[in-house]
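Quick one:
INPUT:
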């Protein structure tokens, strides 16, 4: 892992994401890229892009630059290579673009989730980043002064297209130095007997040399509830899941277990895009 992107609005949740980034960056000797995005009405954005200086915008821009500089010199980032990016854009689009341009390996964001009408009609910027990002996204759900992962759940149906996300999860687990729990959720609508589930897991893991994990099959009324309940049962520090990144009408009709977890989980979530 060479580059970690940390979008920040300077809130306590964003600062928790920065603490997590510092811990991971020190383990990997990675660069931390701090990103702040100023959201503007489209007209103002267009005027800035052609060189006009709107006093109010320039005031916020200068203030944000000063706060980014202060953050970059935070004691928790001491000894790390730190870069700063200030962007005028819609938040989630700016995060995705900066991640692509800088070829980052991980995005870390803080979030307290969204619910109700906000979740249905607007969604959180974090949720939109999870849906769109090609690289893993670590969503920090608690206000932390440090970041430690002792128990890491990777929840999956362990179908063939989950192999690439699983291999990434193994790499992250080594960085975290945590105990890895492989979790399959059994639901009434997609029930598997224990024998069938164990055979599927065995086939999935047949060419995996890594043996530092345990396997669990957990029954619940839905996949999301099963993951959340199992995480609570073992007091997990992190949940790893994969997303297809559905958009548009497909997303509206089908929803996404991953995005629901990002919104509803009290435990931090690490997401992997299925290619």
């Amino acid at each position: 892992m060479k580059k970690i992107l940390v979008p920040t609005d300077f809130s306590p949740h964003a600062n928790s994401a920065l603490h997590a980034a510092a811990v991971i960056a020190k383990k990997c000797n990675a660069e931390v890229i701090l990103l702040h995005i100023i959201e503007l009405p489209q007209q103002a954005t267009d005027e800035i892009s052609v060189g006009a200086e709107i006093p109010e915008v320039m005031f916020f821009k200068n203030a944000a630059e000063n706060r980014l500089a202060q953050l970059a010199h935070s004691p928790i980032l001491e000894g790390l290579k730190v870069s700063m990016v200030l962007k005028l854009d819609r938040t989630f689009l700016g995060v995705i673009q900066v991640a692509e341009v800088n070829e980052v390996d991980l995005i870390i964001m803080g979030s307290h989730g969204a619910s109700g009408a906000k979740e249905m009609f607007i969604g959180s910027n974090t949720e939109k980043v999870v849906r769109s990002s090609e690289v893993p996204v670590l969503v920090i759900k608690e206000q932390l002064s440090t970041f430690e992962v002792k128990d890491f759940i990777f929840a999956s149906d362990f179908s063939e297209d989950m192999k690439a996300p699983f291999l990434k999860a193994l790499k992250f687990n080594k960085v975290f130095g945590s105990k890895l729990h492989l979790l399959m959720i059994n639901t009434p609508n997609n029930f598997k007997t224990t024998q069938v589930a164990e055979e599927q897991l065995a086939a999935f893991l047949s060419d995996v040399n890594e043996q530092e994990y345990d396997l669990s099959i957990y029954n619940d009324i839905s996949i999301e509830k099963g993951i959340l309940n199992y995480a609570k049962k073992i007091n997990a520090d992190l949940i790893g899941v994969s997303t297809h990144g559905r958009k548009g009408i497909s997303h509206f009709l089908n929803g996404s277990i991953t995005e629901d977890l990002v919104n509803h989980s009290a435990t931090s979530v690490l997401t992997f895009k299925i290619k």
